[in-house]
Fold this protein.
Amino acid sequence: TGALRQAIKVRALPRSRRWVGTQVQLQKYYGSFVELGTKYQKPQEFLKQAAKEEEAKTLQKMIDIVKGMID
């Protein structure tokens, strides 16, 4: 139904000079059961998979921003 997809909220963490980060919240109680699995159900690592897919793009964006600040 897409309910779990719509229940994923991503927020930026407070600004810091030392780190950059985000917080991912699942607004549905069963989101962690799907991601991590249960005694009866194998994990379906949809968040982990999405993070891996976006990692290279995000890193490149960060590099471009820092280069722009240096130049």
